[in-house]
Amino acid sequence: MTPEEKYGRLGPGRIEGFALRNNVRDLGGYEVTGGRHIRRGAFIRTTALGLLTPGELMMLGRLAPVVCLDLRSAGEAESLPDPEVDGMAYVRIGGMWDARGREVDFSTGDIDRFKEEAAAHAAPSVKPSKLTPGSEDVASDFMHDMYASMAFDNPAFQQLFAWMAEGVAPIVLHCSAGKDRTGVAAMLIMLALGASEEDVLFEYALTNTYRARAIERIQRQNPDSALATLAEGVLPQFGQAVLETIKDLCGSYDAYFEAEYGLDADALLALRQAYTA
């Protein structure tokens, strides 16, 4: 049975009342090791909160979130501040960093800077792609490498798993569109809780279902451009790159979680008991 057959076209985490384009959903409901399921209401992923309507913000507040992890850069957050939700604390830590240790800022669409730095990109854990200067492939391959490296030495994800080790919930996760940085964070949460690769990649790709109209609109303007699709959706191969890089470098997901976050077998078991049912 495929994940879509098991969970439905919109996945198990569809929250009624939120516009699909805002990419809001619960990570709860996915099956994990031992026949358990990720607990509903523990992790909510969304687009930037400033894009939600007042009614949607009220609905978010009713979910009683404890903390919001904003994965945007400082520039992105300044250009569209998060509105307040009663009872929710806010923490902003950039979710993607370049080779020079700077937050990647999508507010300017600075692909030219990506191209210039592509050859210099050498995250210690990732082999850079072969890039052809001046072509769209440069930016695409560089983004592929940035995706693959996002799971390593990432202060935002280290904070996320520190909260999880303390049993914090509900946690709201967002970036600008709730798809790339938020998508990788969601993948790692699901892997830590024992979800299958198939379900992890299904959840990652659900962004393209939720944001289908925006993707179709930009594809009509740029039908041959993978980067155009990436502007509004996600590329499945980028999500796969995260999984492959973790396994290539660490051998297993359990080894990765111990190396990156200090979560040994007992700690992972404790997470699964806390966040699954």
Verbal overview:
This protein has a single domain (3-271), classed as Protein-Tyrosine Phosphatase, Chain A. Helix content is 47%, strand content 6%. It has helices at residues 3-7, 54-62, 74-79, 111-118, 136-149, 155-165, 181-192, 197-210, 212-221, 226-232, 236-250, 253-261, 265-275; strands at 25-26, 43-46, 67-70, 89-92, 171-174. It has a five-stranded mixed beta sheet, covered by helices on one side. Helix 3 (74-79) links the parallel strand 3 and strand 4. The protein is globular and about 50 Å long.
Quick summary:
47% of the residues lie in helices and 6% in strands.
Task: Name some characteristics of this structure.
alpha/beta; 277 residues; 5-stranded mixed sheet; single chain; 13 helices
What is the SS-derived class?
alpha/beta
How do the helices and strands follow one another from N- to C-terminus? HEEHEHEHHHEHHHHHHH
Approximate strand percentage = 5-15%
CATH hierarchy: architecture: Alpha-Beta Complex
Number of strands: 5
Domain count: 1
Q: What name is given to the CATH topology? A: Protein-Tyrosine Phosphatase, Chain A
- Quickly name the level 1 CATH class: Alpha Beta
Q: What is the count of DSSP helices, taking H or I runs of 4+ residues?
A: 13
Shape: globular
Largest sheet: spatial strand order: 1-2-5-3-4
Largest sheet: 5 strands, mixed
Q: Estimate the helix proportion, in percent.
A: 40-55%
Q: C-alpha Rg, in Å?
A: 18 Å
Extract low-pLDDT stretches.
121-135
Overall residue-averaged pLDDT value: 88
**Fourth CATH level, the homologous superfamily:** Protein tyrosine phosphatase superfamily
